[in-house]
Design brief:
This protein is α/β, with parallel strands linked by helices. It contains 13 helices and 10 strands.
Length: 308
């Protein structure tokens, strides 16, 4: 083996210069997200998505956007910013950029006490008061559904509930701003490890194993998939393109990324699509305290919309 020093000295001077040039191209000033360009991105992301993007997030944003620079063959973040905020980029690239900056953490049966409260307290009440699920279809919205774990968990939970209530019917809407995660949700194919939180008996009823056992993949059964409708939605839109009113909205672990005024504005819009007496779920680490909303707390991170 040639010692490293001898190997370096054996490279011609022109070769060394080329290596230095390549290194600068890969990691030089053009490949670092400047404060000025970061400000362009952060202001846009906050305005478009409502997501807080303080200076402490600059390294994270640089790492995520670097992928698009490589794919597009661009030399600098400034070039990428000029492109993505220009007429052509807004049509062809903006969705890709927004997909990269959103956080899509999701798990099956996440915060399981919510599902127990839904079936043990809320559903019997809604059935009794408004006939939801029995005299008419129960409507649930999974807002910020990511790859589909939450809406499909809801479909499993409601299907189990329907086994004990004759004629019980429901529909679930799942929305997210990321087209990439929505595509995964529509395929409804998951690694077996992702479905580990699903109870065994429920797995047997609602998950299909891949015929090729080396893949270790599962898919949600067709009957369950048919209960879930998926569409793209941006919480920053002035009006949500949703025609139906919801009995229950799951809006969990999303508002932690928003400033307080944005939280209030988004949930106010959301409440317009929630029936009086309907329920809103948030994440256990989130609070609506101090926000001007037509909601009453009924349990930890569970709220009911006031009637009238």
């Amino acid at each position: 083996m040639t010692p490293m020093g001898q190997l370096e000295s054996s490279i011609p001077l022109s070769g060394k210069r080329q290596m230095e040039t390549d290194h600068r191209a890969a990691s030089g000033p053009d490949r670092i997200l400047s404060d000025r360009v970061f400000k362009r991105f952060s202001e846009f992301i906050t305005a478009e998505l409502g997501i807080k993007m303080p200076p402490s997030k600059k390294t994270m944003l640089q790492g995520r956007l670097q992928k698009r620079l490589r794919i597009l063959g661009m030399k600098s973040f400034k070039d990428y910013a000029d492109y993505v905020f220009g007429p052509e980029g807004r049509v062809h690239e903006l969705v890709n950029m927004l997909d990269l900056v959103t956080t899509n953490k999701t798990d099956f049966f996440r915060e399981p006490r919510h599902f127990a409260y839904l079936t043990g307290t809320i559903l019997p009440e809604l059935m009794r008061k408004s006939g939801a699920g029995v005299r008419r279809t129960l409507s649930i919205w999974s807002a910020g559904c990511a790859t589909g774990a939450e809406p499909y968990t809801l479909a499993m939970v409601l299907s189990e509930f329907a086994n004990s209530v004759n004629g019980f019917d429901f529909s679930i809407l799942g929305t997210d701003i990321s087209t990439q995660v929505l595509d995964r949700a529509k395929r409804a194919v998951y690694r077996e490890g992702e479905t580990a939180p699903v109870p065994l008996e429920i797995k047997k009823r609602y998950l299909l194993r891949s015929r090729d056992r080396s893949n270790r993949l599962v898919r949600i059964v067709p009957a369950l998939r048919s209960k879930v409708r998926l569409k793209r939605l941006n919480f920053m839109d002035a009006g949500f393109d949703i025609s139906q009113s919801m009995d229950v909205i799951f809006f969990r672990n999303v508002i932690i990324y928003f400033e307080r005024p944005t939280q209030e504005a988004v949930i106010q819009r959301m409440c317009r699509h929630l029936k009086p007496g309907g329920y809103l779920f948030t994440g256990h680490s989130e609070t609506l305290h101090g926000l001007d909303l037509p909601l009453i707390s009924t349990a930890n991170s569970v709220y009911r919309k006031e009637a009238g």
